[in-house]
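Late entry, written up from scratch paper. The run itself happened at the end of the previous shift, but nothing got recorded in the book at the time, so transcribing now.
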Amino acid sequence: MIGAGILLACASAGLVVGAFSKSASPRREASAPPTSGAAPSWRVTPQTILPGERLRGEIVAIRPWGFEPEEIIRPQGRFLLRVDNRSGLNAVSLMIDSESGTRLRAETVPRTKLDWREIVDLPPGNYLLKEANNPDWVCKITVLP
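Output as recorded:
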């Protein structure tokens, strides 16, 4: 009886640790969402992370001299884009443009907030993450098919 109790306690602890490690993992693989016949588009869906969904992140820092890294190459699929403002500026005005120049997203992030996080889904292609007031600050994002 005591052995069964110990076995049950160990199994329960393993389930709790397993559940915690799945939810606390900062970098997860992304699986591509189902596609329809419609042309793919930019999607921001921070509230739609499903339990057990594996989602990978890309971290970009804004320094006083620009973005680090200056380029990201990743496979197609949803991912968490995290932009950490370490520039010292009171606010940053971030933009994501497609290669053709179409503005996909614009967001002003105040220093009190510092970081910007969004779950995004970009179709294959080239994109530019820019800061509006510093035209030389650019991070190229390439999404592979």
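The radius of gyration is 20 Å.
(Scratch paper discarded after transcription.)
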